């Protein structure tokens, strides 16, 4: 019996060796025999055109294999239960392949189920991805490689990857070169770790300050978003991975800024749809050629985007020239029936989505929930094989472009340890944080603080020791974090006594109801404030760190008020009453209505949502090592009653109540004007503009015009100025915006230094959608304006289109 067992074991080993030998035979010099037929097929031949390779592979695929290329398998800890391939995988639906695997083995933040031994060291993850990829190449009939997708809107969503600040902070840098370098870092790290597709950038135009995902957007202005989004996309894709734009389209303005299940019904007119909300997508698709687009789960004008042939085919592919594949936002297909009620059931919703132009369905459920009904639809003749072939071809084309059929594995897994989150990467991340700081107020130049002048410094406020805003569901995790309190201590404790008193919590027990029905302070809350006041009385200066955390702003976290939440204003007022100077540091993911704070406190620094180096950077900025040069990318309203209040805007839509605003009668019934306008931001130095020059006084409709302007640092400190170019179409056939942003450049200047900044306006910068909804450059007068912000214009000149 013992002899028989030994013989049987040897036989199993021999079979395993032979099986592996058979698999190894598919690897040849210069090509891989994916379909294991012993010859080089067209799709396996790297010298053949991609379209020929797609056509050849498609001709060899059966229905099961085709439909498997239309779905996402969420990675370990989300849907996938196994860290590594198991024997059971041969019985799963992905035995016939899969389009992509999302967030595989990344140790997803805030999800303990996704924590894995394979996320770090980085080389271990690269090897693990290779193991998973190898299973698909070797164990499926046609060996079609997987596209490994992952989030990456402010650094790759992976354990200990390089962490950048939130997108709203990336926007406030107004630094195209820095954003390109950030994109390149995300792309390089993705490639090294085995990811082939990054879900970034977000091109949503954030027009409602109450909306929860404002923190994940660059700006309220489509031109600024397009310029930064283009650089992020180019940076990612120049590293050999795909960038997938999101969320297409009109996603960022649900009715009333409401979030969660209520992300529907954007009240957007057709011309505004194209000029405002689709503008960044059109430009980035045409100028950066992204390989992916994510379809959103909202509707527009009663039609769900994910089941809209107009959005997914007419606009995206025919007008914009998109050649990649469209992946749905999670549950977007299900919502066609369950939320929008334009389909009788989920299966009919699948038909609508596939017919409209969707390529790949994504949701946090097993992929067969989509694949099996789709197979039924094809067999029933309700979805044609021609349509299915077109959808699958788009997915395969991206995989060929990514080189997955020529080199499906990470070539040098060990190199990942040297390519991910390097010292240079960390320096770049810190620089992004530095350049995102926005100085909102600085009476009597109280900032920067002279560390030798203040012997006793109180740091207070609920955000002083908090750190949860430095990471997010869509960014890197497990990096060391410096709180603002610790950053100030590290900077100043050698010269001053730095004390701390929390003062209050971020929110009170009844928040958000306490925003509409005031509740009295509890004895504990009063004691906390009293303790901070007592500490302030002993201090020479107070640094109050207030605002929001990741629990008050983010996905599904819209608000009905924009004041500082909880008891924070009461804390600030109590500190102010001590007579000690109070410097406010605001940690915020959206504009806040800080009216009292702006009127009475001498200095306000917007930190936004910086990354893990938050404390170090805020301290550097407060004490002058970093001169803040960031500019706001969203209008700050004084009240939620003013919303919508944005840049750009149509003539008269944000007018006052004076005689000149309304000749039919004046009034005094509402608060007017922005608290801080779009493009606003102060500095510790001063600048002036001069010598605005245009290359021509008259141009033809298809001509360019070159513009130069000198900017000089007239102060005593080195600093950055963002030169902003605005354009006004004086008379047009349809109503246009009062002015539009059409150029910007961040310039670093030493004291007394002057630089000449150059801009080129192209026909597309002058174009409008005419009465026939055609992009047209109309004859007439245009005004070029150079300024510090959208409201602080310093120089103007005109030219005429003949």
UniProtKB/TrEMBL annotation:
Domain of life from the UniProt record: Bacteria
Molecular function in Gene Ontology: alpha-L-arabinofuranosidase activity; beta-glucosidase activity; xylan 1,4-beta-xylosidase activity
One of the GO biological process terms: xylan catabolic process
Family of the protein in this entry: Belongs to the glycosyl hydrolase 3 family.
Designated name of the protein: Beta-glucosidase
Matching Pfam families: Fn3-like (PF14310), Glyco_hydro_3 (PF00933), Glyco_hydro_3_C (PF01915)
Entry keyword Hydrolase: yes
SMART domains per UniProt: Fn3_like
Record carries keyword rRNA-binding: no
Residues spanning the signal sequence: none
Keyword tags: Hydrolase, Signal
